[in-house]
Specification:
Blueprint lengths: L17 H14 L17 E7 L5 H14 L2 E3 L8 E4 L12 E10 L1
Antiparallel strand pairs: 1-4, 2-4, 3-4
């Protein structure tokens, strides 16, 4: 059985500070009666990565990943996916509103030079 361990992130503009984030968590918790205790202010340094825009349904992503892997081999790199360097997917389409053939997903893998 496959078990996925994931986090959902939202990129914040550079002008948003930790203090702004803490205010937003406190305000949402109080006004909206939401449990925001697990929300974190993270800074992620991705390091060297390869990424590609996948167009289409999520089930078709392996074809895009295969193209990325082919690019790596051709250019002297290998995947560097580990417990600390992870596969990322950035969803640009709202799957509730767009047809699967129109979904856009950025796939990103950490890499290293051979």
């Amino acid at each position: 059985m496959n078990c996925y361990n994931w986090i959902s992130v939202i990129r914040l503009p550079d002008f948003i500070t930790r203090k702004d984030f803490e205010w937003a968590v406190e305000t949402a918790s109080a006004k909206k009666k939401l449990d925001c205790a697990s929300a974190e202010f993270l800074t992620i340094d991705e390091g060297l990565c390869v990424q590609a825009m996948h167009l289409g349904a999520f089930d078709e992503e392996p074809a895009t990943v295969a193209l990325m892997d082919k690019f790596l081999v051709k250019n002297g790199y290998v995947n560097d996916i580990s417990k600390t360097r992870l596969h990322h997917e950035i969803y640009l389409s709202d799957a509730r509103k767009a047809a699967p053939k129109k979904w856009r997903t950025v796939i990103q893998h950490p890499i290293k030079k051979i």
